[in-house]
Specification:
Length: 405
């Protein structure tokens, strides 16, 4: 690990990370600070970033090459010749512009902390989190990255985790609430196979189980969810170390989620409504990008079906374990849109366009934001002190980087 990234990891374990006793309107606890330190180290680990970036690009590029070879035909070139640059640019603006709503949401939640972060820095934070999400499994690095970046720009560790967790909490609730609607609408439009329908309902079941566990954590705040699940697990699973570690991590996530939910009422009706509206705007912009691109290809009559298709895509993407959903996401997208479009060649072209502005432009814009954040960090006061070796030595720092995601 080079000195620049070593500096960044040490910054996350500086003195501010222990000063988390002041409560805020949205609340947090000391454990959040410790968790942010651990996860922040992993997010800023150069080797992890490089591996995730290479894997994400490799899987995505291989999938797109295969899709091009399988679907390229005359219909593809006909649609490409009719492509409207105006609608394509509008689709790009919708895809990248949705993060502005996320930045506004964070700014609204910052009121409860009595802290001020410049809006341009908030834009860096959300786009930097977009980048770390694209190169981590299940896009989990997005939430962690945003929290770490908020900490860098002046929030206490607990405040940063609470704000980002609260935003993720609202998004997750909306996602689960819209999941049945997506299944109902898709069943009336698409003719999914039994396997795909089984996957959709399995994903819905996972979401409902998660909400049930969160409800348990709210009603019984002192209940160790992970230990409860472990006691009710089959004996052959209880003996597996990785399974116990998974339940421990799951229990922590549920407790953090439940803590955010318990603090929702403290925001007040007007502010909570504004947060929900901003979250809906974020998701709406994401849903509209692909249908607008489809209009640009000359298939405006499929606009309504494309919105439903994109709802299904957005619901399923978080369940893909590869970085940024690469590899599986492209083929899943192609499969869904092949069921509503008359030509497979057009569906293949739309897949390429979607991946261009959702993934590759995201890497470019988000990567640029990430680099700027690292530059800002290197210019912050106290760099000389932070650049000194930690008491644990290099071996201990590397142990952080090598821990499981």
């Amino acid at each position: 690990m080079n000195s620049g990234f070593s500096l960044n990891l040490r910054f996350l374990s500086g003195q501010r990370s222990t000063d988390i006793s002041k409560p805020t309107a949205i609340g947090y606890n000391a454990g959040m600070g410790d968790e942010l330190e651990a996860r922040g180290r992993r997010v800023l680990d150069k080797s992890r970033l490089k591996r995730g970036l290479i894997l994400a690009i490799t899987l995505s590029a291989a999938a797109l090459v295969a899709i091009s070879l399988l679907t390229l035909n005359r219909d593809t070139f006909d649609a490409l010749s009719d492509l409207s640059l105006t609608f394509l640019l509008l689709a790009v603006a919708l895809s990248l512009g949705r993060w502005i709503w996320s930045a506004i949401r964070i700014r609204l939640l910052l009121v409860s902390t009595d802290k001020a972060v410049l809006f341009r820095n908030l834009l860096k934070i959300v786009y930097g989190g977009y980048f770390t999400g694209l190169i981590t499994p299940w896009r989990a690095g997005g939430v962690t990255g945003e929290a770490a970046f908020l900490y860098i720009y002046g929030l206490e560790a607990g405040e940063a985790v609470a704000i980002v967790s609260f935003g993720a909490c609202v998004s997750t609730i909306l996602l689960i609430l819209f999941f049945p609607l997506a299944i109902w609408l898709s069943s009336s439009i698409f003719e999914f196979s039994f396997t795909v329908q089984g996957f959709l309902f399995s994903a819905l079941a996972v979401g409902l189980i998660f909400l049930a566990l969160v409800l348990l954590a709210i009603l019984r705040p002192h209940t160790a969810v992970g230990q409860t699940l472990l006691r009710h697990s089959p004996s052959f699973l209880r003996r597996r170390e990785r399974y116990r570690h998974f339940l421990e991590r799951l229990g922590h996530e549920i407790q953090t989620f439940a803590l955010s939910l318990r603090q929702i009422v403290s925001l007040g009706v007007s502010r909570l409504t504004a947060v929900v509206i901003l979250t809906l705007l974020y998701w709406t912009f994401g849903f509209m990008a692909v249908p607008v691109a489809l209009v640009g290809l000359g298939y405006g009559s499929y606009f309504g079906k494309a919105i439903v298709a994109q709802l299904v895509v957005q619901v399923l993407l978080p369940f893909i374990p590869t970085p940024g959903g690469s590899g599986f996401g492209e083929f899943g997208f192609l499969y869904i849109y092949s069921t509503i479009l008359p030509e497979t060649g057009v569906a293949g072209l739309l897949t390429l366009i979607w991946r261009f502005f959702d993934f590759y432009l995201g890497l470019i814009v988000g990567g640029g934001a990430f680099i700027v954040i690292m530059r800002d960090l290197s210019r912050m006061p106290g760099r000389k002190a932070l650049d000194e070796e930690e008491p644990g030595g290099p071996e201990d720092r590397d142990s952080w980087a090598d821990s499981s995601p």
